[in-house]
Amino acid sequence: MPPSPYRGGTVNDRFLRALRREPVDRTPVWFMRQAGRYLPEYRELRGDRDILEAIRVPELAVELTLQPLRRMPLDAAIVFADIMVPVAAIGVPVRIEPGLGPVVDEPIRDAAGVARLRTLEPDVDEPFVLETIRLLRKELRVPLIGFAGAPFTLASYLVEGGPSRDLARTKALMNDDPDTWAALMGALAALARSHLLAQIEAGAQAVQLFDSWVGALSPSDYARSVQPWVRRVLEGLPVPSIHFGVGTGELLTLMRDAGGDTIGVDWRVPLDRAWDRIGLDRAIQGNLDPSICTASWDSVEPAAIEVLDRAAGRDGHVFNLGHGVLPQTSPQNLQRLVDLVHERTVR
Ligand code: CP3
Q1: Rounded CA separation 61/76 (Å)
Q2: Other C-beta atoms lying within 10 Å of the C-beta of residue 270
Q3: 263 pairs with which residues across the strands?
Q4: What are 71-122's pLDDT values in tens digits?
């Protein structure tokens, strides 16, 4: 393994400062899915290995986490793992199909299925995640983010059995059988919370809750069938948290009320309008369209500048994409983007 350029304690804390809405020297920037197939060195190191297998080897997970940081001066690292790791760790058979996503062969659609979800014991069930975090903290000089999938997004994979466009089965269960739904969400909220707390104890300095697919819901469904369980996950965490979803324009105030020091927003709502909805007493993360990063730099630059202009140099902005980096993204574009954000936002 090549030496890490980041050995030592956390030196650059502008990311943590922004989550607390404290003044920063420059706007911090990191990218969801900053480790991944867009990097040739990722493809080479992962080889044909199943991603859930790769995550089980701490030295490998450490290296995959560090790869993007060796290329560009990102202001945070995110532990290389997946939202399905704690689900697999409690014995649910799940695999990740390249190019598709998580697949669950025996979907959960009734009370008996929910009853099979046992309590997560992080030290016993997923020691490799915690070891990866401990090793990373020795290497990193930027803050380390731990993460979990939110109950609704995890439920969507467990109920559908895989990725789905309309989440029809998930919504049917939610509406037809509120008791089973409550039991499922309760189990997944406990899973997500204990997964986050264990990562924090191992050294994660901030956490992000990914509710990637919650934008499929109406505000009333969200308020009734999702919000109470998100609140349970995020309430009183000992480190700053980011609460993220995609397609959440109409849900932003409900998500804010569910919790999170920082709300992560996608590109469908202009950043300043999203911040108005969330309220200026919270930090915001986002929100460049990841597809734009697959275009030429001449297209990326003005779009990135627009995001920065909408943030208007206010404290509490963490620059990110509105969703994860796409595999066809040019690494050079992201490198230039990091420099652009840092150069244009000197205070
Ligand atoms: O760099 C990072 O952001 C850290 C690692 C990370 C992964 N997954 C690794 C991964 C994180 C934070 C995730 C979260 C995740 N996983 C989410 C929430 C974020 C989002 O994108 O909305 C979701 C929904 C998943 C489930 C999942 N896992 C999907 C949809 C996929 C993509 C399938 C594909 O091939 O396109 C995965 C696989 C996955 N997780 C990859 C990576 C790097 C790609 C695996 C590969 O082929 O190498």
Answers
A1: 16
A2: 14
A3: 243, 284
A4: 999 999 999 999 999 999 999 999 999 989 999 999 999 999 999 999 999 9
Listed in sequence order, the residues at least 6 apart from 129 whose beta carbon sits closer than 8 Å to its beta carbon are 55, 61, 79, 81, 85, 122, 198, 199, 202
Q: How far is the CA of 6 from the centre of ligand 1 (A)?
A: 24
Atom of ligand 1 nearest to the CA of 46: 48
Report how far ligand 1's centroid is from the alpha carbon of 321 (Å): 15
Q: What is the DSSP string of 205-217?
A: SEEEEEETTGGGS
Between the CA of 33 and the centroid of ligand 1 the distance, in Å, is 7
**Confidence label for 3 from pLDDT (cuts 50, 70 and 90):** very low
- Ligand 1, pocket residues at CB < 6 Å: 32-37, 46, 51, 78, 80-83, 96, 98-102, 147, 210, 212, 324
Yes or no: say if 129 and 136 are a contact pair by the CB < 8 Å rule: no
- Is the Cβ–Cβ distance between 268 and 308 less than 8 Å? no
CA 103 to ligand 1 center in whole angstroms? 13
**For 6-64, what is each residue's pLDDT tens digit?**
445 788 999 999 999 999 999 999 999 999 999 999 999 999 999 999 999 999 999 99
Strands (E), the chain: 77-78, 94-97, 101-104, 144-149, 206-211, 241-245, 262-264, 283-288, 317-321
Specify the amino acid at residue 169. R
The CA-to-CA distance between both ends of the chain, in Å, stands at 37
- Pick the residue whose CA is nearest to atom 25 on ligand 1: 83
On whether the CB atoms of residues 92 and 104 are closer than 8 A, the answer is yes
Residue at token pair 């997946």: 82
Which of 72, 96, 195 to mutate to test ligand 1, by most ligand atoms within 8 A of the CB atom? 96
Q: Please identify every residue annotated as catalytic.
A: 33, 37, 46, 82, 157
Q: Concatenated DSSP letters for 183-240?
A: HHHHHHHHHHHHHHHHHHHHT-SEEEEEETTGGGS-HHHHHHHTHHHHHHHHTT-SS-
